[in-house]
Amino acid sequence: MKFAVIGAGISGVSAARMLQDKGHEVTVFEKGTKPGGLVRCDVVDGHLFHRTGGHIFNAKDKEVRDWFWSYFDKEKEFISARRNAKILLKGKVIGYPIENYLYQLDKEIIESVLADFLTIGPGGKKDPFSYSDFADFLKGNFGSTLYQLYFEPYNRKIWNTDLSQVPLGWLEGKLPMPNIKQVLLSNLLREEESSMVHSTFYYPRQGGSQFIIERLATGLDIQCNREITKLEFKSGIWTTNETNTFDSIVFTGDVRQLSELMSIDDRELQHELGGVSNLRSNGTSNLLCETDDTDVSWLYLPDGNTRAHRIIYTGNFSASNNAKGKRKSCVVEFSGHVDERVMKAEIASLPGNLAPIDFNYEPNSYVIQSEDTRARISRIKNILSGYRFHLSGRFAEWEYYNMDKAIFSVMDILKSFRN
Ligand SMILES: Cc1cc2nc3c(=O)[nH]c(=O)nc-3n(C[C@H](O)[C@H](O)[C@H](O)COP(=O)(O)OP(=O)(O)OC[C@H]3O[C@@H](n4cnc5c(N)ncnc54)[C@H](O)[C@@H]3O)c2cc1C
User: Which residue's CA lies nearest to atom 17 of ligand 1?
Assistant: First the structure.
């Protein structure tokens, strides 16, 4: 079959890789100047700049792991590291996750948290996800003291929205759910939390996540600076931008744009696509900085004295991420669009004598789901698959995917081709 893959982020490149390895003819169209999407990195003044986040790799699923590692030499090309995350809370550095480091908080706060825990009970609710929204979930599982002190201000910064408007579906597998008994034990025994998502991770020795993309992209026909603005289906054939024809399409772009992009004689589909064109997302603004040395990998910033929500010490992930002879690099991350001048002013209140190097604004980084999003996307996927058009990826499926989940989704879709 002749496939067009739209988008060369991790989803598009993985899909193209798998399809080409199975013998299909594949062309990838990418509107950006190089492959990568959200995982894109550039070298600026000798420092590696993760333009969004600071991408590390981890995969729970064995099939994903096996596929991924078949393209890399794990020992030679990657570093395996332990997460060393901290929280800067009212000027004091606290361990992460906060509930396991209660003993580092002030006495009155500890007393108040304990009072909350006694109300919640040793095992908490039988099903920790049986709350109506994210705000209730956090209050119900951690109590109102920790909610007000940390969970609410931190998550409000990230989501830029009222947490009671955030449904719970996206949380599955994202947060470990220790019960009160485990939390108290961790505090008494002072044991490190090892079951956290990303408590250990892999990171390329050279080039960060751009290395991953470029290795997977080797030998693929990826046409950059090629935005797909029109997708037409007629007589069983797909035509992109009125030029190239394909048997099948894998779309990894933004599902909200499909109702505009797609020309197809199907009223039900057009109706469904119209229903997702207004989904909400959040962007992130990143400031690449030089920093004084630290052994921390992520520093979370819940306090209201800065709009930044975390510092990612990417210079600690691999020594090659830092310019020779300079201090280490890090990325200060802000939710939404924050002007470069504002970001530069904000870092004065952060630790590490930060010196700015470069900045980036990514308008779409976090998807915000509502109650019916999954059902809507599922209906669209069903209809589209009848036209050999497949949605895969964070913004195509409107899922809070990490790289591994994006790869898993591609695998899942490709398996469905056989059925
Ligand atoms: C702040 C942050 C931190 C993260 N950290 C991690 C982490 O540490 N580890 C991890 O595993 N995951 C992490 N993730 C998640 C990870 O970034 C995503 O799961 C993954 O990058 C999604 O890839 P994708 O290919 O689905 O989408 P994208 O990366 O958005 O790729 C889509 C591509 O399609 C292109 N495109 C869109 N429309 C068109 C069009 N019409 N024509 C042509 N091209 C088009 C875009 O330019 C883009 O390159 C993080 C995400 C964020 C926001």
Answer: 38
